[in-house]
Amino acid sequence: MEKNKKNNQCNVSDFDLIRVFAGLMIILSGFFYFLKALGFIVFDFNIFNLWPLLIIFLGLSFLVKKNIVSNIIGIITLLMVLFIVSLSIFSYQFNHFDSKNIPIGVELEEGVVKGKINIKTGIGRVNIYGGEKEKLVFGTLVSNIMDLNISSKQENNIQSVSIIPLDEIKFLKVDPENSLYLKINDSIPIDFMFQGGAADLNFNFRDVLAENINIDTGASNLKLKIGNNVSSNVKINAGVSSIDITLPKDVGVSLILDSGLSSRVLNGLVMENEKLYKNPNYDLFEKKINIEISMGIASLNINWEEIEKPKTKIQLYYYNELEDKEIKCGVDYVLPVEREIDLTRTPIQDAINLLIKGEIKEEEKEAGFITEFPNEEFKLLGVNLKDEILYLEFNDVPGFTSGGSCRVSLLANQIIKTAKQFSGINEVVLLPESIFQP
Questions:
Q1: CA 149 to the chain's CA centroid
Q2: Which of 74, 81, 159, 179 would be a feasible disulfide site paired with 112, CB 3.0-4.6 Å?
Q3: What is the pLDDT of residues 408-431, one digit of tens each?
Q4: Residues 18/57, Cβ–Cβ less than 8 Å
């Protein structure tokens, strides 16, 4: 019985080294995945790539016996494996010292009506703005710890861009530099997705048509500005973070907040229940920003700003009866008056709508300008510019666009001359074709 007991003790000791080996590898893997979750390292590593270790386990099972030589071989093997794994993880740090400027430029493809931008990064600074006019995204990465993989594809007139680290481990250096600067196109709607670790994030989407914003970050300082160009849905998942959100005053805002230990300054928002906050008259606003935030130990500040809309000057063309002394009803007597309007993405439509309102100033009336606009039933239904031909479609109001060639000509030419002030228009077609017939 005593002999069997000794044999059992020997068998247990025979496999102690294997248990130590396996335990250390599991702990090491868990340690690095933990650092990745906190954002201190960035890598895409498949744990199944460690399958050769199974062969080493099998060899150790044959070597590990009661004699000291086998134990020494096992210990040396264990130390070598741990050294190689650690060296592979830290090799990027020791072999890459100089920062690189990595250009980022993705062309906006023809026919695209919406963009989806997915960005993944680790520690560092990230600055993203609107204002790009030609490309979908444009900018640079300055880094000594990370390279990028940039891809783009189009499907159903939606262009998807992915900006993520290359498939390799990149560990935090003693003196790391990792700064991403990016401009986003502001002419099409955008879905924006960001995933990062410990970082300083500055996202200024005031000029971006950001319909959806999804931010997943760890220990970060996040500054987010949102504009009033479109309604937006915002989701933020943050860890130990400081979050400052600046919103326009002329939109409805709702906030669903799920937080742990945090400080919050929710200026202008009224609590509706334990987690839901809204600004007064939320339902009355045309455009809305709906925000969902899930955060741990964090501070949240909500700020508001007046967004002054840029202006542009246009001309509206009306008939001037004082200039037309002989009542020729000619195009030459349809003359311009100046107006200043908000700069939007539909200037032609805005100008025609303002023209048919027929709002002539008193000094313009004294100068001889008259019009038979407005008619409450007469409305612009559609605008289409193709091959330098502008098609303007109106609803046909019986009796309004008839009544003699002079009257019809003046009404039609007010619209045509107002439209032709814009570049790229050589011809204007009024629809339906019978609408301005005597």
A1: 18
A2: 159
A3: 889 999 999 999 999 999 999 999
A4: yes
Please identify, among 95, 121, 148, the residue that sits at the C-terminal boundary of a domain. Answer: 95
Angle, in degrees to the nearest 10, between helices 16-38 and 68-95: 20
Give pLDDT tens digits for 191-228: 999 998 777 999 999 999 999 999 998 878 999 999 99
∠ CA 10-12-14, nearest 5°, is: 65
Give 139's strand partners. 104, 182
Q: DSSP secondary structure string, 128-177?
A: EEEEESSEEEEEEEEESS--EEEEEEEETTEEEEEEEE-SS-BPPPSS--
Evaluate whether 232 touches 290 at the Cβ level (below 8 Å). Answer: yes
Let me know whether 326 and 379 are in one domain: yes
Residues 132, 63 share a domain: no
Question: Do 274 and 252 form a contact (C-beta atoms < 8 A)?
Answer: no
Stated pTM of the model: 0.59
Task: Please indicate, yes or no, if residue 436 is contained in any of the structural domains.
Answer: no
- 3-state SS assignment for residue 91: helix
* 291 lies in the same domain as 378: no
CA 62, CA 216: separation in Å to the nearest integer?
Answer: 48
Domains contained in the chain, number: 3
d(CA 74, CA 246): 60
- Sign for the pseudo-dihedral over CA of 295, 300, 304, 310: negative
Out of 49, 68, 95, pick the residue that ends a domain: 95
